Amino acid sequence: MDEKPTDSAAIQSLRLTWNGVTGKSDYSWRTLNSCMHDSLALAIRSHLQFNQDDFHKISSEFRWDYWNGGGGEGFYNLAVFNKNTSAIEALEHYWNRRPFRAYRVLNTTGSYMQSAGNIQRYGRLVVGSVFFWIGQRVTVTSFNDKEHKVIAVIYRKPEAPEKREVLDRITEHEHGTRSPIEKIYRISNEELKGK
Q1: Chain mean pLDDT for the chain
Q2: Which of 33, 40, 46, 72 has the highest CB neighbour number within 10 Å of its CB?
Q3: Which of 57, 73, 95 is the last residue before a domain boundary?
Q4: Mapping DSSP to helix (H, G, I), strand (E, B) and coil, where does residue 77 land?
Q5: Which run of H or of E encompasses 107?
Q6: 181 and 105, same structural domain?
Q7: Co-location of 79 and 110 in the same domain
Q8: For residue 174, what are the domain limits?
Q9: HSE-up of 100 (CA within 13 Å, CB side)?
């Protein structure tokens, strides 16, 4: 008789949340999505164990695309910041992402309690990480998992508000950046290691 693999503590926690919310006859998708988002964040922060295929399971069983916050990068950031290695590795497996690491990395989360961030001598890169590349301070904006590259940018230093052009104001409004992008780098792991 084949034994069914045991669910990780993280999946068990998410299943409890899912069943708790959907077990009520008057639940809403909004409530379910919010609770699932919070449950996954709690699982990461409390260092619950994740199995390698958990995010495939989360995606197929718990409708992850509806509540992952735009692709799940925020959860990756949270896992790296909280040093939940099993969650980090499960997300990297899900995306087929090789970990990107650099020297003198500043990682922060969107949380006001952790906004001071932590500077790591040698750390994993996440969206929002700041590090030095070719002598320039760059910020990670995304990953291209198909090409195995990290996308990092240099933001132009803002001028005095009265000197900024209308285009700069539109860029800030549309993209939420404080200043326009000066340069974009597409960096491979090999390039990071060879630096």
Answers
A1: 85
A2: 40
A3: 95
A4: helix
A5: strand 101-107
A6: yes
A7: no
A8: 98-195
A9: 30
